Amino acid sequence: HRHAIEKLEHKLKSVKLINQAKAVLMSRLGISEEEAHRRLRSQAMASRATTEDVALSLINAGDLLKKSGMS
User: Fold this and answer.
1) Residues 22-59: b if buried by 16+ CB within 10 A, e if exposed
2) Which residue from 16, 17, 21, 41 has the highest number of Cβ atoms inside 10 Å of its Cβ?
3) How many beta carbons lie within 10 A of that of residue 66, not counting itself?
4) In angstroms, rounded to a whole number, what is the distance separating the alpha carbons of residues 67 and 45?
5) Which helix (H) or strand (E) holds 35?
6) For residue range 27-54, what is the model confidence (pLDDT) as tens digits?
7) Cβ contacts of 32-36, under 8 Å, gap ≥ 24
């Protein structure tokens, strides 16, 4: 049961990251949630990364831009 719980916790974390990244794209680019998700998936495939990794990179970049006053 412990392994199943850990797997579900990881999935929940992944979904939260992807939703946060979609929100960044939707806000900055004025696109729909579906388009934001499509762009995340497309970038993940193009860079041979997971959608979660691309989402995390996007969130980190957005945080960096906010901190530097470039938002």
Assistant:
1) bebbbeeeeeeeeebbebbeebbeeeeeebbebbbebb
2) 21
3) 10
4) 29
5) helix 33-46
6) 999 999 999 999 999 999 999 999 999 9
7) none
